[in-house]
User: What shape does this take?
Amino acid sequence: MLVAFGDDRSRFGNAQAFMSYIGIAPVKEESGKKRWTHWRWSCPKFLRQSFVEWADQSRRHSSWANAFYQQQRRSGKKSSQSDSRSGV
Assistant: This one.
């Protein structure tokens, strides 16, 4: 992780800035009456995939992460939305 982000902790002012950089923060768009959400396309793909896989493994090996994941699924979230929320 140190290699990916460097040692300057002030680089990201908050968690949202960090999540935006690695591409796991949702991007909301709207045009006219349509609204949609997608993930950031311009980001380090390897880092994004690393966090997605970490969230999935966290869910599989941690009881609290799995409980949160199941709660998100019951509330109607898609699997990909639930994974990204449980890992970060």
